[in-house]
Amino acid sequence: MGIFNSVFGKKGDSVKEEKQIPWIPLVSIEQLDEIAEKSKTRTQLIFKHSTTCGISRMVLNMFTGSYSLGDENDIYFLDLHAHRDVSNEVQYKFQVMHQSPQLLIIKNGEVTYHTSHGAIADTDLAQHV
To answer: How far apart are CA 49 and CA 26, in angstroms?
Structure first.
């Protein structure tokens, strides 16, 4: 039963608790002005995700698993396929070349840090917020 239990678990084993990120859906271009304004008093983060990309899904899972910030900032989730117009405007407004997946940190109306792909999971967010 040892191998069976190690694969399927034993009765009474605790279920691994998943971290919950307080995502704010980024669905409109108008929100970008709000993000820029709010960034003057509170750090804003944007996570750009491609729902059809395996790498983006993997990075999202790694990011979620390592996320440790409290509620001192706002974190937006942008589905690139559902809101391509918003993604294009993010690139224009914040002057950061589009990549996917991508993480942007915004303070005082400007991107102070951005990264993409696997480097997102390696980012020490506390250092940048």
So the answer is: 11
The total number of structural domains in the chain stands at: 1
| Predicted model pTM | 0.83
Confidence category of residue 69, pLDDT binned at 50, 70, 90? confident
Is residue 79 a part of any domain in this protein?
A: yes
User: Does 25 sit behind a cis peptide bond, omega within 30 degrees of 0 on the bond before it?
Assistant: no
- Chain length of the chain: 129
- Give how far Cα 22 sits from Cα of 61, 103, 106, Å: 15, 15, 17
Question: 109: alpha, beta or left, given left = phi > 0 and alpha = psi -120 to 50?
Answer: left
